[in-house]
Amino acid sequence: MLWKSWIALVAALLQPGKSAASAVFQDPDTGLTFTSDFILYKADGRGITYRIAIPDNAQNYVPYDAVVQLVVPNDVGWAGLAWGGSMPRNPLLVAWKNNNDVIISPRWANGHVSPQPYSGSEYTIIKGGTKSNSTHWQVTALCKGCTAWTVPDTGAQRWVLPGGSNRLAMAYSPNKPSNAASPTSSISIHEVHSYWTHDFARAKNPNFEATVQRLIA
Ligand code: HEM
Ligand SMILES: *[C@@H]1O[C@H](CO)[C@@H](O)[C@H](O)[C@H]1NC(C)=O
To answer: What 8-state DSSP symbol labels residue 179?
Structure first.
């Protein structure tokens, strides 16, 4: 059925901007099942991989923990993830490499201005899924407080729904934060931002809590 693959490929190529569905990734380092999307930040093919793993008992409109994994080329200064799919008024993750460590800084912005440290979400780095080599660094972390939040002023509740797909957003800067040892360092504006639809339904893991507890112990 080769011709069918060709038709699919041509159809995909005719829809620039439409990304393929998230891939399922079985992580040998953590044992978790992630859904994975590769997001370009340079026309030459460089991109950041964003992966999500969630509990199989997560329910829509109820907060749940999530594990996030980023695979980042070494030329990236900081990489961002917006859980609500746009910059303002949702939990932001900003990650960068500092010597042999990776720093994850939870942030929040009420507009298109420099995001400030945010106490509503908390990341715990999973050492077994955090490493680097001559081309990339990778970080894996548990997040509490990334899948539900309250919009200031209106008080509206927002959720990342575990039962389907959610629009996420990313941002890329070539510049390291000025005080890279500090999670609260100021950061420079991104050079690129992008959106994609991330599949959460296939990111579900049985025994998520037990596995994560073992990984962070
Ligand atoms: C110093 C830090 C930052 C500054 C000064 C900044 C500023 C801005 C500005 C001015 C825009 C509007 C650009 C336009 O309209 O073309 C924008 C858009 C955007 N920014 Fe940031 N940003 C910062 C950090 C971040 C971070 C950490 C993220 C995390 C993912 C992010 C995600 C986005 C996204 C997705 C957009 C597109 C518009 C939207 O969906 O809201 N930004 N930013
Ligand atoms: C370097 O590390 C990244 C992230 O863990 C991995 O995806 C990549 O395959 C590694 N490259 C080599 C040559 O080992």
So the answer is: T
Ligand 1 contacts (CB < 6 A) are 80-82, 86-88, 92, 94, 107, 112-115, 169-171, 187-190, 193
Q: Which two tokens stand for residue 207?
A: 């025994």
Return the ligand number nearest the Cα of 78.
1
Q: List pLDDT tens digits, range 145-192.
A: 999 999 999 999 999 999 999 999 999 999 999 999 999 999 999 999
Distances (CA, A) of 215 to 3, 40, 130: 45, 30, 11
Distance CA 120, CA 117 (A): 9
pTM here is 0.91
Angstrom distance (rounded) from CA 182 to CA 110? 22
Q: How many Å lie between the centroid of ligand 2 and the Cα of residue 104?
A: 20
Which residue segments constitute the domains of the chain, with CATH numbers given? 15-216 (2.60.40.1210)
Burial code of 51-85, b = ≥16 C-beta within 10 A, e = fewer? bbbbbeebeeeebbbbbbbbbbbeebbbbbbbbbb
